[in-house]
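New to this. Please check this fold:
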Amino acid sequence: HHYFENLRGGILSPTAFWNTANQHTREALNRFNIVIHRAEDFYNSKNSNKIQPRAVCTFSDRERHFLKDDDYKHFTMARKFGEVYINYCEVGKPIYDVYRDNDDIVGEDNIRPLRYYSADFSLYFHDKNQEEVKKFISGLNLWWDSNSKYLKELGFEKNDPKNAIGLIPVAMIEHSHESEQDIIESIANVGRISHVEIHNTKGEINE
């Protein structure tokens, strides 16, 4: 992923390589990034002995909008089956992923807590119980204390909501008679999402 970051650059600060690359090269580099994250999911599940399926949907040329200060209180490390979360729409790594991956080569410029939201989303097909969340947060706190001087020099203060620890839940899929395993098996071989239908609180459909 470090190679991808160095080749792509930030969304607002792309590299000369990206700026001069043709469309085929850009698509190949974006595909490289997707394959990396698929590999991460595979090995994270293997190492934890727990299958953690999810679907990640991204849109071409999507607009990004600044998160408001009040939005940061909604970040959570909890995960619920069928819940939809806004996706990380930066190039780099959020702080909690730097800790989780024990990443010491990410590069200071590539540590980027989420500051934007877009139409991109992640749909989780597994739960993360309170005990798992508490264990993660406890480890993150110890890591932060051990690296507090370094993180402070980068501009990150412990317990600042704008560190964006986790993801923001925004929706829930509706399912009735199907079991969770049936749902997982029905989408396991789907490689691309072609249509998204959203029901708002009034029951109206937006596509």
Observations:
- The radius of gyration is 18 Å.
- Strands lie at 54-57, 65-66, 83-86, 116-117, 121-124, 169-172, 198-199, 205-206.
- The chain has a mean pLDDT of 88.
